[in-house]
Amino acid sequence: QQNEDKSNEYLDELEFLAYTAGGEVYKRFVQKMTAPNPKTFIGKGKMEEVQAYIAQHGITTAIFDDELSPAQQKNIEKILECKIIDRTNLILDIFAQRAQTSYARTQVELAQYEYLLPRLAGMWTHLERQKGGIGMRGPGETEIETDRRIVRDRITLLKQKIKKIDKQMEVQRGNRGALVRVALVGYTNVGKSTLMNVISKSDVFAENKLFATLDTTVRKVVIGNLPFLLTDTVGFIRKLPTQLVDSFKGTLDEVREADLLLHVVDISHESFEDHIASVGKTLDEIGASDKPVIMVFNKIDAYEPEVIDEDDLITEKTEVHYTLDEWKKTWMGRVDGDAIFISALQKENFDEFRKLVYDKVRDIHVTRFPYNS
Ligand code: GDP
Is the beta carbon of 158 within 6 A of some atom in ligand 1? Predict the structure, then answer.
């Protein structure tokens, strides 16, 4: 049962990713296996089932939730005769669509080439098949080598470019002087951009899709005469492709160098506890887990916990309306560090939120400049 819940959850996320990329999902297939099939990822029976569905409904693309090996991708493509995309590919696609600054575009391009490199051979075989494959093998092989070299050169070049921008960004961060730095962190789609907009009265792109935010935005914010810098960071997600984890190092530096983290949580999401854990893991990985954190439980307007009926049989979703004091008495209110419960959309409990941020920022400011305050 638990495994089933998990795979459903992963597929929910995958479906949301597909929707973010501009696709429409027709059907989901789940297979329970102890280990994926090395040749085709899924088993023969399941493959036939998928094949039949694709043929019947004229499906153009099949998306797999894990990273497929280049060989698997090629084999599946041969059987299903449609476009085969894996989770990494899908995420890279979304990042490519949404990268706005030259830094983000360079990072995405690098990640895409790194993803492409081991797959070049497979792509060639695919072409060869289309061309009939006669008399192609010799020059074909050379062509793969040439392609590989071009891609490798490009990767080296992009890495140099990123290194240069990283240095520039480091200098810029240094130039921001003594202002306290606050970073919004959290799973993707929890409301970070929305919160950023409300706090800084600016206009950051927010929408109900994964990764609306790709580039970090830094804004100077003033609460009660106290100025500080607020950074909106890229949303964390489970199973983020390794190519991207590496290439977004610069973005994560913003988090690493922050004085205070606002960990935003979408409590209307049924697996928000998992999200908290995976954000915690990422923070750990980048060495930012010892920073002061305010847990910002967001979307209280949409919180509908499952309530178990008296006869213990029926669970149903029920809307709740707690006061801030009642919220603080829940387990969420008792987490380590500070917690606040808000709706960024409806600006609920916003005065309390501002006060909490103000107090924390002031504390940090005072510790830093004991004689100026
Ligand atoms: P981000 O990916 O963390 O930056 O999330 P966004 O700020 O882009 O918000 C994701 C979605 O959640 C958008 O559709 C927002 O309108 C919605 N949202 C943000 N805050 C709230 C809230 O307090 N309540 C509700 N119901 N929706 C919210």
Answer: no
Residue 264, SS3?
strand
Task: Tell me, yes or no, whether 360 lies in a domain.
Answer: yes
Binding site membership of 216 for ligand 1 (Cβ less than 6 Å): no
Q: What is the pLDDT of residues 1-19, one digit of tens each?
A: 556 667 777 888 888 889 8
The residue assigned the tokens 């409904």 is 57
**Residue 43: CB partners within 8 Å, gap ≥ 6?**
31, 33, 37
Q: How large is the ipTM?
A: 0.98
Residues 230 and 116 in one domain: no
Burial (CB count within 10 angstroms: exposed 0-12, middle 13-18, buried 19+), residue 182: buried
Tell me if 142 is assigned to some domain. yes
For position 17, which CATH number holds? 3.40.50.11060
Q: Are residues 209 and 340 in the same domain?
A: yes
Nearest CA, atom 20, ligand 1: 191
- β-pairing verdict for 180-186 and 226-232: parallel
Q: Which domain holds residue 73?
A: 2-94
Could you tell me how far CA 372 lies from the centroid of its own chain? 40
Residues 235-274 have pLDDT tens digits of: 666 666 666 666 566 667 778 889 999 999 999 988 899 8
